[in-house]
Structures are given as C-alpha cells and as structure tokens.
Amino acid sequence: MLVRGDLVHCTGLGHLHILHDHLLGKPCAFCTRDGHISHVGPAGEQESLALLEKTSDAPRVIPHGSFLLPTFCDLHLHAPQFLYQGTGLHLPLMEWLHEYAFKAEESLDADSTLARRVYTRLAQRLIENGTGAVLLFGTIKAETNLILAEVMQAAGIRAFVGKLSMDISTRPSYVEHSPDAALAAARAFADECASLVAHLPKHRQLVEPVLTPRFVPTCSDALLAGLGSLSEARGLRIQSHMAEAHDQMEWVKRERGVGDTDVFAQHKLLTPRTVQAHCTFLDEPALSRVAATGTAVAHCPLSNAYFSAEPFRLREALARGVAVGLGTDVAGGYSADVMNCMRHAVAVSRMREGSRVGRGDGGANLAVDWKEALYLATRGGALALGLPLESGTFAEGAPFDAQLIRMFDPRTGAGVGAMDFFENVTERKLTEDMVEKWWCLGDVRNRMETWVQGRKVRAYEDVLP
After folding, report:
1. Parallel, antiparallel, or unpaired: how do β-strands 274-278 and 72-78 relate?
2. 9 pairs with which residues across the strands?
3. pLDDT band at 170 (very low <50, low <70, confident <90, very high)
4. Confidence of residue 1 (pLDDT cuts 50, 70, 90)
5. What is the DSSP-derived secondary structure letter of residue 324?
6. What is the pTM of this model?
7. Pairing of strands 15-25, 40-42
C-alpha cells in the first residue's frame, strides 16, 4: 500500500515545510515492517512513479483539505493526577501537592482497578489529542506503574514510565522509608518494566522505564546519589522537576544550602538522558550550564502560570542550545492536549516580549511564533526525548508516527470542527495560512487517524458521534 497526499513537518526551529502531493511508500505499506518510512518523495518524480508501477494496489489518497503531520511529544505528564484533572488549582505548589497530588497518587496505589481505569482513559485521551510519545510520572508503588506501562503499550503509545522515588514526604503514608528501599524499588521497577516488553520485536517495544526522583524536597542526598549512579551504570533515563516555584526553591536552599540545580549536578542527575520540567527560575548562565550537560527541558507554560509565578526563558534557552520540548503537566496544567500547550507557549512568550519592550531592554525578541511552537511539539520534543533518528519528521528511516488532520470537506469546502472558510478552498493548494488556522482553531474533531511506529492507533470512526 502507498499513501499519497500533502505532508507537513518542521525540520528545524521555525522551519515549516509543506510537501505537496508526496508519496510515502513501501511494497506492502507506507513504512517498512519495523514501522519506519522507506520512501518519501514528490509523487511525480521518477522513483515514486517506479514505486507506483511496482505496486498492484492503488495508493491511498489523502483527500484535498487534509494533511499528515507528525504526532506530538508530551515531555511532562503526571499520569495518576489525571484522576483529578482540572481541580485544586487555587493553592500554591507545596500545599497543592499535599492536598491533592499525594492523595490521588496514594489512592491509585491502593486500588489497582481504579488505576487501570484512569490510565486506560488517559491513553484514550492522549490518542485523541494526537500524542504519540509521552514522558510520564507515575506513583511510588511499582505494581501501579507496571499497570501504566501495560496500558500504554496496549494502546500503542510510545511511553516513558517513571516510578516515583521519594524518601521524604509531608504525608507519612505516602513515602519510601529509606534511601536503600527506594533504590531497590527503582532497580526492580526498571527490570520489570523492561521485562514487560522483552518478548516483543525491538520496534514494538514502546514503553521504557525512567528513574524519577520527584524533586529535591522529597529526596535525600543518599537517594539522589544512588539514582545518579544507577542511571550512569545502566544508561537509564532520568526525569524530575527543577527550579519550578518560589516555595520549592526556598525550601531547597534552606535545607540543602544550595539551589536544586547544584543538588542535581552533584549527584550526576544532569545528563543527556535527563529531562527536567519547568526550570522557570534558571537565568541565562544557568541555562548555559544545563545545555552543557545535555539535559533537556520540558516547557510547561500552563502549569508555570499557576505554580511558578515566573515564565520560562524559552527564547534564551533555545539560543543557548538547550533541547526543549513541551509538557502538558497534568494536573498542574488542566489540559492534556499539546495543542493547548503550543498556544500557551506562544502567548506567554509574546507577553514576555511586550514586557521587554516596555522596560526598554535591548537584546533579541523573546517571542516565539506558531511554527516554532509546532517544532517544539514535534521534532523538538523528539530530540529532547532522544527518540530514534529523524523522529518527528517525514524522512526515510524515521518511525512513521503521524496524525491525519482534516480541515475541510473537499467537495463542499465546509470547515471541520471550529474551522470556517469563507473563500472557495476546494481548488486551493494547502498553504501556511491554512495550517496556521488549524493550529489556532483545531481540536480533536480535525484528527481523523493516528499512527505510532507504523500502526494505526486511531481511526475516523472513533470520533463519530
């Protein structure tokens, strides 16, 4: 089978490419048997024509008014907090954790049926929202995190699952009782999570364990040191929160005598395998330091507005070579939709630029535009996650992680979902203005199909009433 139609992807920051009338193909599908794209090219070029001649079946044609786009990457989401998504956002961070987050996480650890229900619905929402890869915080209990990994694998989502490590807590019933116990649990979970998919071909192993010290206030130095050594010895990924909120940073300086960036660095937890969420209070020298370690940042503009009281220095981070992707940060962010995350990232950056101009400061423009945000949600997120070569683009050798976006009916020109077109679009080629319109107004009603590693995980029938 071959697929022919318009492709949209970002190959670099701000570099949006519309590939009109292109062919994706291989002899039996549009990607190789291991889910990677084997051919991309204009449908009229010689190689594409030869491929069409060799194939007995007619190509599947993406209709006019629709296009393929790489799936989104969500670099920060608390899976158990999906239980109370959209509530409790009136409190400061440390109070919110005690009153909402810890209780919800503990309740899922105590009820495996509830955990499976919550995680199954979360997987459905992620697919609806076009998320093909996600970096997940879980809970303390290994078994609950294995349920999370099982659900994501079964759903066909590329998921990096973190069992929380925390030997300090304001909730005595929700804590690991020693650094040694926490480290033993982290090792065991990493082994069990890997075993969960070990029987599958490599390209079908979609879930992977992540070492997850919650953040410095909940982790002793002994635990952090042990996790750093474990990651170094076994090449395991790391995720945490860093420089997120006033009360959190004040606590760390008071208790540890240094900032949490120094604490993570001391324990070898800032590495090319690390993604740190938020980082809103990092100044430019600190961002350069983070870039030098290869650590990536999950930019979470919505939850930053609620809990950080400080916007992330996105433009400065990008200028210094920090790998940045976007994170919805459910439930500190109330939406699990990366499209909303993109929009918030642009809005916050424009306000930062307005403040810079108002102060009369010199220097570079701090605003990012919609194309840059789309890059962060796709290719940029893939790079920050260390996904396989060319991920987040349509290129030969890239995993086929894609979503089919429908903007309007090709026969009538009637817009889909919230999109309205008042000029005749049925004869027009796909333009940047059309893609921007979808970026601003589109929602789940525009997403017809989704694939991860070459397998369909969502079809049009799923969105019919």
Report:
1. unpaired
2. 17
3. confident
4. low
5. E
6. 0.96
7. antiparallel
- What is the share, in percent, of the chain residues with pLDDT greater than 90? 88
Query: What is the pLDDT averaged over residues 151-177?
Result: 96
Residues in the chain: 465
Q: How much is the average pLDDT of 338-360?
A: 97
One-letter amino acid identity for 402? A
State pLDDT tens for residues 56-87. Answer: 888 989 999 999 999 999 999 999 999 999 99
Nearest Cα neighbor of 224 from 177, 175, 263, 276 is 263
Q: Are 193 and 210 in contact (CB under 8 A)?
A: no
**Phi, psi dihedral angles at 262 (to 5 degrees):** -65, -40
Dist CA 259 CA 112 (whole Å): 37
* Angle between helix 179-197 and helix 221-234 axes, rounded to 10 deg: 30
- Look-up: residue for tokens 């594409």? 48
Residue type, 61: V
Q: Which helix (H) or strand (E) holds 72?
A: strand 72-78
Element (H, E) at 239: strand 237-242
Rounded Cα distance, 141 and 108, in Å: 9
Closest Cα partner for 194 from 132, 202, 165, 388? 202
Task: Give CA–CA dist 269/260, Å, rounded.
Answer: 11
H helices of 20-62, in order, are 46-54
Could you read off the pLDDT of 239-298 as tens digits, one per residue? 999 999 888 888 899 999 999 999 999 999 999 999 999 999 999 999 999 999 999 999
Closest CA to 453 of 384, 385, 391, 386: 391
- Give dist(CA 19, CA 269) in Å, integer: 40
Structure confidence by residue, pLDDT tens digits, 424-463: 999 899 999 999 999 999 999 999 999 999 999 986 554 4
| Longest CA–CA separation in the chain, Å | 71
Neighbours of 401 (CB within 10 A): 31
First vs last C-alpha separation in the chain: 29
Residue 148 corresponds to which tokens in the numbers above? 């999370």
Write down the residue that tokens 């983070």 correspond to: 290
242 beta partners: 278
Residues in Cβ contact with 191 at an 8 Å cutoff, skipping those fewer than 6 apart: none
* Buried residues in 106-138 as b, exposed as e (16+ CB within 10 A): bbbbeeeeebbebbbebbebbbbbbbbbbbbbb
pLDDT tens readout for residues 299-328: 999 999 999 889 999 999 999 999 999 999
**Could you check whether the bond before residue 331 is cis, i.e. omega within 30 degrees of 0?**
yes
> CA–CA separation, 431 vs 428, rounded Å?
8
